[in-house]
Design goal:
The protein is α+β, with helices and mostly antiparallel strands. The chain folds into 2 domains: 5-179, Beta-Lactamase (2-Layer Sandwich); 194-248, Orthogonal Bundle (Arc Repressor Mutant, subunit A), CATH 1.10.10.10. 45% of the residues lie in helices and 13% in strands. The chain has 12 helices and 5 strands. The chain has a 5-stranded antiparallel β-sheet with strand order 2-1-5-4-3, with helices on both faces. Helix 9 (194-204) packs across helix 11 and helix 9 packs across helix 12 (239-248). It is elongated and about 70 Å long. Pfam families: Autoind_bind, GerE. Residues 185-250 form the HTH luxR-type domain. Keywords: DNA-binding, Transcription, Transcription regulation. InterPro entries: Sig_transdc_resp-reg_C-effctor, TF_LuxR_autoind-bd_dom, TF_LuxR_autoind-bd_dom_sf, Tscrpt_reg_LuxR_C, WH-like_DNA-bd_sf.
Length: 254
């Protein structure tokens, strides 16, 4: 049976590149009847307004050529209902875009999801399995296997592979995560300087600007400048909001 660790160890082993790990995961997924794979990783999955953040890593296998640009540049990731489902659950799930199918997707899909739904119908990729992985400190990853074919039969087959596909997902994540650089593990869209981070870290302890200046052996004017710069980068109205947002985006992690 595929769902044995011994069957995975020969394919997904530490030290190989992420590309190679994905190729090997595809081999395992194809044995379960899946035609394509989508893997995504985000150090922070949502922004402070609750919108999905484009993932730091998006690995694709056997998907259409325009998939990456649509999901990462054209905003499809933000309106992908499967991604919203994955973020809101801890359990693997089967999904289908067919209106008569009985999956969790039918309960949440709305009109604004139409671009994704239409695209997947055109590509005949309307059914799949997704496994969410909620990581320490708020990171998030998921692996989705897509199937083509007649909707009812595909959905039935997908349900039978849920456990095995989940095992593949966790095995892939275990070998893939150590390959991610420090940059990939931090929010990529806001860059704070070392001094800005230091000032905000002390602010999390409740220190005033004057007290931070004493801790860093800097003038009050310099510390105030660093805090103001950090607030501007974070789009924060005040120092408290800047600390909250910097913590949310994991910008203060060591």
């Amino acid at each position: 049976m595929l769902a044995k660790l011994s069957a995975l160890n020969g394919y997904l082993t530490p030290g190989r590149s992420l590309d190679e790990q994905m190729d090997n995961a595809l081999v395992l997924a194809q044995r379960l009847g899946f035609d394509a794979l989508v893997y995504d990783y985000s150090p922070v999955p949502i922004d402070h307004d609750g919108s999905l953040i484009t993932p730091s890593v998006l690995q694709l296998r056997n998907t259409p050529d325009d998939w990456h640009s649509l999901w990462c540049s054209a905003g499809f990731y933000q309106i992908d209902p499967v991604q919203h489902l994955a973020l809101d659950t801890v359990s693997p799930f089967v999904w289908s875009y067919e209106s008569k199918a009985d999956t969790a997707l039918q309960k949440i899909i709305k009109r604004h999801h139409a671009p994704v739904s239409i695209y997947l119908h055109d590509q005949q990729m309307t059914c799949g399995v997704s496994v969410p992985i909620h990581l320490p400190k708020g990171g998030f990853a998921s692996l989705t296997g897509l199937r083509t074919g007649k909707a009812h039969k595909v959905l039935q087959d997908a349900r039978q592979t849920l456990g095995d596909f989940s095992l593949i997902t966790h095995a892939l994540q275990e070998v893939a995560y150590p390959l991610f650089s420090k940059e990939l593990r931090s929010y990529p869209h806001i860059r704070l300087t070392k001094r800005e981070r230091e000032c905000l870290k002390w602010a999390t302890e409740g220190l005033t600007a004057g007290e931070i200046a004493e801790q860093l052996n800097r003038s009050l004017a310099v510390v105030t400048l660093h805090l103001a710069s950090a607030m501007r980068k974070l789009g924060a109205k005040n120092r408290v909001q800047a600390v909250v947002r910097a913590s949310h985006y994991r910008l203060l992690d060591d």
